[in-house]
Write a structure and sequence with these properties.
The complex is a heterodimer of chains A (235) and B (328). With 235 residues, chain A is α/β, with parallel strands linked by helices. In chain A, 39% of the residues lie in helices and 26% in strands. In chain A, the strands form 2 sheets. In chain A, strands 6-7-8-3-9-10 form a 6-stranded mixed β-sheet, with helices on both faces. In chain A, strands 2-1-4-5 form a 4-stranded antiparallel β-sheet, with helices on one face. The radius of gyration of chain A is 17 Å and the shape is globular. Chain B is built from 12 helices and 4 strands, in the order H-H-H-H-H-E-E-E-H-H-H-H-E-H-H-H. Chain B has 328 residues and is mainly alpha-helical. Classes of the chains: A alpha/beta (235), B mainly alpha (328). The site of magnesium ion has 4 residues of chain A, from helix 1.
Chain lengths: 235, 328
């Protein structure tokens, strides 16, 4: 059984038909990437998975259970963590409070402390800034904090929406290294990116989405050499 | 003239802080709801008023049952405060559920109209019930504390006159301060307080953290309304007579205090309330002297609101803006 499966998902924003029958699968332990250009429906796909928007039809199966009409706060507690586009750090909470928010549903103080240590292990920079207000961090630091915050819930599936957005190449490199490292330690990741080249390099498999439809899918290494993909996304 | 103003200053401060404490606690309710929903909960003044009536009703009941005679006044007050806070807290939560939540996606103006509607509704319900039960909608409840304390300010500095402090003012001030410290602590230090701040800053992302946003909004209304209702009890105790319309002007002034402190800012609301109270009492005591008799004490609101306008012209975000403490 796949950890995540989308079956013929149709999502609308009022009259706008954003997802026109998306189906995809993520297996346990994989990095799967969803690439596509602006407005293709990548973020909408992630929002539909985590319950921020409800699909009109189709199903989202998480570990075989249909979660397609479950509100976001419930899904968050059942093992899916979503790092939203634009990072969405709480600007006037401290870095430490932002991390604590990630473990809001966790009652065990010791577990929270352990997870925070784990986050510091991946992102030592975050540790140096615990009492700083989240909103005063740099873009790269905020992205690290956003991923760290998601890890605090100890998810089974991590949804990442354009983690490289607006970051300098060195930082992007670091973020992708961490993504690979997290995956090596067992984390299943669904990665949305416009930075197709880098995403396909770290991903096992990829899907290409275009105006709300999956137009291509395959191994990361195959897509990266595919003529059409190269033309549209890697030029 | 200066010396006359100085003479009355201690009394002005005592009365101003007492009134200001009332504004401050009510202002908290406005500012919390605004912080989390960007909604001016116009009905909050009426929650305060309802609290005053519920408190007096509980007092009448306790007095009728003969309890007031046998229990210490402080204990009686505590019971009244707890019962009233629970009633108005649940009332506030109910109002949000029925009158605001269905309009959450509607333009803010529509919700504001709904809030004004709730205000009138509460005024009339309270008036109806009070008239029905007591034959008159203006009531004076049993007084728990009627002693006074003299404060010997003149021995501190000979230019000061002594001030008189009602016992009820002391109790009002102490209760208000405890409520404010308690709320500040809750919002800034507790887990659910952190949840409230996160929902105020970014509702969608708070939901991604597993927070039930509707629950947090209900909690915010409960706390704001419980504090507002408790303040109503303190008001009734301090000023004696109440009617169903006290919430309107007081609510407006408390809202003003919240804006003065920086709407959405909890500490700002507390400070704004105290400042407005002192300004108002200062104007009431000295306006006639300051203007050579042109303006009498009745114009105190013009003075207080004039200062408000000046502050807002130079600092539209309010005295504390958004930068100082957490917005809720
Ligand atoms: N809240 C919304 N209301 C109405 N339309 C929306 C909303 N959010 C997204 N859309 C529309 O849905 C479509 C898909 O948007 P989505 O944000 O999923 O794209 P995306 O692939 O994430 O793009 P980007 O790379 O720019 O982030 C777009 O046409 C967009 O305009
Ligand atoms: Mg997007």
């Amino acid at each position: 059984m796949s950890i995540l499966e989308l079956k013929d998902i149709q999502t609308y924003y009022g009259g706008i038909h954003a997802l026109k029958g998306i189906s995809l699968k993520v297996e346990k332990g994989e990095i799967v990437t969803l690439i596509g250009s602006n407005g293709a429906g990548k973020s909408t796909a992630l929002k539909t998975i985590c319950g921020q928007v409800q699909p009109k039809s189709g199903s989202v199966l998480f570990n075989g259970k249909n979660i397609s009409s479950q509100p976001a706060h419930v899904t968050a507690k059942t093992g899916i963590a979503h790092v939203p586009e634009g990072r969405r750090i709480f600007p006037r909470l401290t870095v430490k409070e932002n991390l604590e928010m990630g473990a809001f549903a966790v009652k065990d103080k010791k577990a929270i402390q352990d997870r925070m240590e784990k986050v510091f292990h991946y992102f030592p920079r975050v540790k140096e800034r615990l009492s700083q207000k989240g909103g005063t961090m740099s873009g790269g630091e905020q992205q690290m904090l956003a991923i760290g915050r998601a890890l605090m819930s100890k998810p089974d599936l991590l949804l990442l929406d354009e983690p490289s957005m607006g970051l300098a190449p060195v930082i992007v490199e670091q973020i992708f290294d961490i993504i690979t490292e997290l995956n090596k330690e067992g984390m299943t990741i669904l990665l949305v990116e416009q930075n197709a080249f880098q995403a396909l390099q770290v991903a096992h498999r990829g899907y290409v989405i275009q105006t709300g439809e999956i137009v291509m899918s395959g191994q990361g290494s195959d897509l990266i050499t595919n003529e059409q993909v190269r033309e549209a996304y890697l030029a | 003239m200066i010396s006359e103003i100085l003479q009355t200053l201690p009394q002005v401060l005592v009365d101003g802080l007492t009134l200001g404490a009332i504004y401050a606690v009510i202002a908290l309710g406005y500012t919390m709801v605004y912080g989390i929903l960007e909604l001016i909960n116009f009905a909050h003044g009426e929650i305060f008023m309802t609290g005053a009536f519920v408190g007096v009703a509980v007092l009448f009941f306790m007095s009728g049952a003969g309890w007031l005679a046998v229990m210490p006044a402080i204990l009686a007050l505590l019971i009244v405060l707890v019962v009233t806070s629970l009633v108005t807290g649940v009332l506030g939560m109910g109002i949000e559920r029925v009158a605001y939540r269905p309009l959450r996606k509607a333009p803010k103006l529509i919700t504001l109209i709904s809030a004004i509607g709730v205000s009138f509704l509460l005024q009339d319900i309270v008036r109806f019930i009070t008239e029905w039960k007591r034959g008159n909608y203006i009531v004076t409840g049993p007084q728990l504390f009627d002693s006074k304390i003299g404060l010997d300010f003149s021995s501190i500095w000979s230019h000061f006159n002594d001030a008189i402090l009602k016992t009820s003012s002391v109790i009002l001030l102490v209760s208000a301060i405890l409520m404010m410290i308690g709320l500040d602590f809750f919002v800034n230090k507790s887990k659910w307080g952190m949840a409230m701040r996160s929902v105020a800053q970014d509702r969608d992302t708070a939901a991604l953290m597993g927070i039930n946003v509707n629950k947090v909004i209900s909690l915010t209304f409960f706390i704001g309304s419980a504090l507002g209702g408790a303040t109503g009890v303190l008001f009734a105790m301090q000023y004696g007579t109440i009617n169903p319309y006290i919430g309107f002007i007081l609510g407006l002034k408390a809202f003003t205090a919240a804006v003065l402190g920086g709407i959405g800012n909890i500490r700002g609301a507390m400070f704004g309330g105290l400042l407005l109270g002192v300004l108002e009492m200062f104007a009431s005591a000295n306006l006639q002297k300051l203007t050579g008799g042109v303006f009498t004490a009745e114009y105190k609101d013009v003075f207080a609101f004039g200062i408000l306008i000046i502050v807002l012209i130079f600092k539209p975000e309010g005295l504390f803006g958004k930068a100082v403490t957490e917005k809720v």
